[in-house]
């Protein structure tokens, strides 16, 4: 699920819906511009603020302790996440 400034507050409801449907893996995608020209301040949110918000929602909702659920934070730079949140970081680049 891609998150941005316009929809990030819907995360708790989306997580509840997906887990109630029995989804086993949830990838939360941080939307970042490809260039300065594509950076729209109405959509793009500061990565550190989004990372903090997402991890707090996951922690408070107890989604990180569900053995049947895998949560990945995609395209969040590790430096924008707390140390505890970094274990859920998933780089989008594939290793060969």
Please, could you describe this protein's structure?
It is a single chain. The longest helix has 14 residues, at 47-60. The protein has 96 residues and is of the alpha/beta class. It has 2 helices and 4 strands, in the order βαβαββ. The radius of gyration is 13 Å and the shape is globular. The protein has one domain.
Could you outline the blueprint of secondary structure elements for this entry?
Blueprint: E1 2-3, H1 11-20, E2 25-30, H2 47-60, E3 70-74, E4 89-90
Parallel strand pairs: 1-2, 2-3, 3-4
* Largest sheet, spatial ordering of strands: 1-2-3-4
Helix content: 25-40%
Let me know the number of strands.
4
- Report the portion of residues in β strands: 15-25%
Gap between N and C termini: 25 Å
Contiguous uncertain segments of 5+ residues: none
Radius of gyration, in Å, reads 13 Å
* Total of domains: 1
Secondary-structure element sequence? EHEHEE
Structural class: alpha/beta
| Overall mean pLDDT | 86
Helical element count?
2
